[in-house]
């Protein structure tokens, strides 16, 4: 090492400066012995430390520097006026150097990376020398060494001082990491000492802006809205020395704003006492390391989360949920990541549409609502879209929990996650049964009218042509023309009634005595067809179907009489079967042709296979609108039996309590 205060003195033999040092490492000196020899090898196995020797030049300083180097330390020599420019872990000073370098030692003793111990070296009783110093000078001394120095004592004192250095440096580093952590945390952090704010991080400053500066030195509880103060006070009072409490929700007042927050508190425990930096027989603590780290002493750490955005999101989600729950369109959500892509949400309208409760459908696949007549091609189209994660819109024939069928306008859209994968499917369902029925009825009207009009007009035109050719029997042709015209008039009347049924204007839904309505209709038909035998057995029954039942009876009986190939015999009965009234019309005619029967029993009208008249369609739709059903059977020995089943209602229009069937 270079002795910057004079090489000649450092190399001089003897103890010229009177320190009485035996630090030449041979163990000799005042009370010295060979077993006190310091081991350089042992020291070099320890931590490498820089020791500053701020001592008067002389042989003792030279010997001390050599001893330090030999024992694995990094000695450096500095004059008092050079001390501020030297980096060191521990400083050895004499009284004169201490007086001259007091300011530099005070500044260097504690900086940002912990305590830098200062050992006072003085002849004889070093404690007496320390006591003779002014308080300001004594305050920077960590320990004292009396000369003559024994090697083993010097080793022990140096290692003790360096242990303080290492521990304080670790503590300083920990505090610096803590400071950086709380400065960068996204939550607002307040440190309290006896309930008073002594520190706030950057997020706390942002939270309380522009009134953040006024917070310093105030009681934390004063920042809380009055309605929440008791709850927060209980939170803080409930802290134990090593515990934490919370979180609780409370509003913090920042300026003119009230900010919803979530508050948690933790007791600050510094762990073991910080290393002291005073002499063993009377330590004198220096300035707190924490203060140099920008983190003042505190007993409570309060973490405050601004939940205003979360509250807004939660309010928005609740709004969305209410909107979905109360929407007038059925809404469903399925989860394709679960086995069989089950329903995980259905809204109230969907429950109303299907008749199934939430509990009955959640966890099950939507195919539950299909029926035997659901179009397989439409089902396949939906499944392909689901498999490919694509949207799809279809109309499906579904079945309710009570067995009634309805047309479902289904729209399915995939919901993608952040990675683009499909996480859910959102479904919308609308009941379009009325529209589909209208479309079917309009299609029937269109086809039947075109078919029958074309047939009748062809008849008219054919007979007109015969008359123009001076036919031999003009009366025959005119009779045929008249018949065709009457048929067209009848068709026009049927179309009028068809339109009335189509728009739901034929009669009302008031309770109707079915037996009375049938009796009135039969009286009219008997007058119109005096040659027909019409028998009736009518049990009392009240149904809700308005005058539509009368239309159905007229159509069925007229059809039986007009199409009978012999003297017509018609039997009409009204019977009660459980909770239903059953109206049956039986005849002795040839029966209803097979191609006409679907119009009664629920088949679809097609351009190729269609009924030639509107009457049977009217019967079916009247019964459908009344919530009933129609069936067909062959009569014995010949003819047809058409039965209409309608639910019975009480005289006040309310359905009676249904029997289990």
Structure description:
This protein folds into four domains: 7-176, 3-Layer(aba) Sandwich (Rossmann fold); 185-310, Beta-Lactamase, CATH 3.30.450; 326-431, PAS domain (Beta-Lactamase, 2-Layer Sandwich); 506-661, 2-Layer Sandwich (Heat Shock Protein 90). Strands 2-1-3-6-7 form a five-stranded parallel sheet. Strands 9-8-12-11-10 form a five-stranded antiparallel sheet. It has 661 residues and is of the alpha+beta class. It has 21 helices and 24 strands.
How many domains would you count in the coordinates? 4
Are there runs of 5+ residues with pLDDT below 50, and where? 1-46, 272-293, 607-611, 656-661
Strand content: 15-25%
Distance between the termini: 111 Å
Average pLDDT taken over every residue: 79
Strand line-up across the major sheet: 2-1-3-6-7
Q: Which second-level CATH architecture of the largest domain applies?
A: 3-Layer(aba) Sandwich
Helix count equals 21
Rounded to an integer in angstroms, the radius of gyration calculated over CA atoms is 53 Å
Share of residues in helices:
25-40%
Overall structural class, as computed from helix and strand content, comes to alpha+beta
The biggest beta sheet is recorded as: 5 strands, parallel
List how many beta strands DSSP finds.
24
Task: Examine the coordinates and then state which fold CATH places here, giving the name of the CATH topology of the largest domain.
Answer: Rossmann fold
User: What sort of overall outline do the alpha carbons produce when their principal axes are compared?
Assistant: rod-shaped
* Main CATH class of the largest domain: Alpha Beta
Q: So, the CATH homologous superfamily of the largest domain?
A: Response regulator
């Amino acid at each position: 090492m270079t002795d910057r205060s004079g090489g000649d003195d450092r190399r001089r033999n003897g103890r010229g400066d009177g320190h009485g040092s035996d630090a030449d490492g041979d163990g000799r000196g005042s009370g010295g012995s060979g077993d006190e020899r310091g081991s350089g090898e042992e020291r070099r196995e320890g931590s490498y430390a820089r020791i500053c020797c701020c001592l008067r030049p002389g042989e003792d300083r030279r010997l001390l520097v050599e001893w330090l180097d030999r024992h694995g330390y990094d000695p450096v020599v500095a004059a008092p006026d050079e001390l501020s420019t030297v980096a060191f872990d521990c400083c050895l000073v004499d009284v004169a150097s201490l007086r001259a370098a007091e300011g530099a030692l005070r500044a260097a003793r504690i900086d940002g990376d912990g305590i830098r111990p200062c050992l006072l070296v003085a002849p004889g009783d070093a404690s007496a020398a320390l006591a003779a110093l002014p308080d300001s000078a004594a305050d920077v001394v960590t320990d004292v060494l009396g000369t003559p120095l024994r090697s083993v004592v010097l080793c022990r004192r140096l290692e003790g001082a360096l242990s303080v250095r290492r521990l304080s440096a670790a503590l300083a580093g920990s505090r610096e990491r803590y400071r950086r952590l709380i400065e960068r945390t996204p939550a607002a952090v307040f440190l309290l000492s006896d309930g008073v704010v002594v520190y706030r991080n950057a997020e706390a400053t942002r939270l309380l802006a522009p009134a953040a500066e006024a917070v310093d030195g105030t009681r934390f509880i004063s920042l809380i809205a009055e309605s929440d103060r008791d709850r927060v006070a209980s939170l803080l009072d409930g802290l134990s020395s090593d515990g934490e409490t919370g979180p609780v929700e409370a509003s913090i007042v920042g300026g003119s704003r009230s900010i919803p927050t979530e508050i948690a508190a933790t007791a600050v425990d510094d762990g073991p006492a910080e290393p002291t930096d005073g002499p063993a027989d009377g330590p004198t603590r220096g300035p707190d390391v924490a203060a140099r780290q920008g983190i003042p002493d505190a007993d409570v750490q309060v973490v405050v989360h601004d939940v205003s955005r979360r509250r807004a999101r939660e309010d928005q989600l609740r709004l969305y949920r209410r909107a979905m729950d109360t929407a007038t369109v059925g809404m469903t959500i399925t989860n394709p990541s679960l086995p069989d892509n089950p329903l995980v949400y259905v809204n109230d309208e969907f429950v109303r549409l299907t008749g199934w409760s939430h509990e009955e459908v959640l966890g099950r696949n939507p195919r539950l609502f299909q029926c035997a007549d659901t179009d397989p091609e439409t089902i396949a189209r939906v499944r392909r879209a689901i498999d490919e994660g694509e949207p799809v819109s279809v109309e499906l024939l579904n079945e309710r929990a009570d067995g009634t069928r309805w047309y479902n306008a289904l729209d399915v859209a995939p919901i993608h996650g952040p990675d683009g994968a499909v996480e859910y499917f959102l479904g919308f369902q609308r009941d379009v049964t009325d529209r589909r029925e209208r479309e079917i009825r309009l299609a029937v009207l269109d086809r039947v009218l075109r078919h029958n009009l074309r047939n009748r007009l062809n008849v008219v035109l054919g007979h007109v042509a015969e008359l123009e050719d001076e036919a031999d029997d003009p009366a025959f042709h005119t009779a045929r023309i008249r018949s065709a015209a009457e048929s067209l008039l009848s068709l026009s009347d049927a179309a009028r009634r068809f339109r009335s049924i189509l728009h739901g204007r034929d009669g009302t839904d008031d309770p109707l005595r079915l037996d009375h309505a049938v009796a009135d209709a039969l009286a009219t038909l008997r007058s119109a067809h005096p040659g027909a035998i019409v028998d009736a057995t009518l049990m009392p029954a009240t149904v809700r179907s308005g005058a539509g039942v009368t239309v159905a009876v007229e159509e069925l009986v007229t059809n039986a009489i007009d199409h009978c190939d012999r003297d017509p015999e018609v039997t009409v009965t009204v019977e009660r079967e459980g909770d239903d009234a059953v109206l049956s019309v039986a005849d002795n005619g040839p029966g209803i042709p097979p191609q006409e029967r679907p119009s009664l029993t629920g088949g679809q009208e097609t351009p190729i296979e269609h009924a030639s008249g509107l009457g049977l369609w009217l019967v079916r739709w009247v019964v459908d609108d009344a919530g009933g059903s129609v069936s067909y059977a062959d009569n014995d020995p010949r003819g047809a039996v058409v039965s209409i089943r309608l639910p019975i209602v009480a005289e006040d229009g309310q359905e009676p309590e249904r029997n289990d069937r």
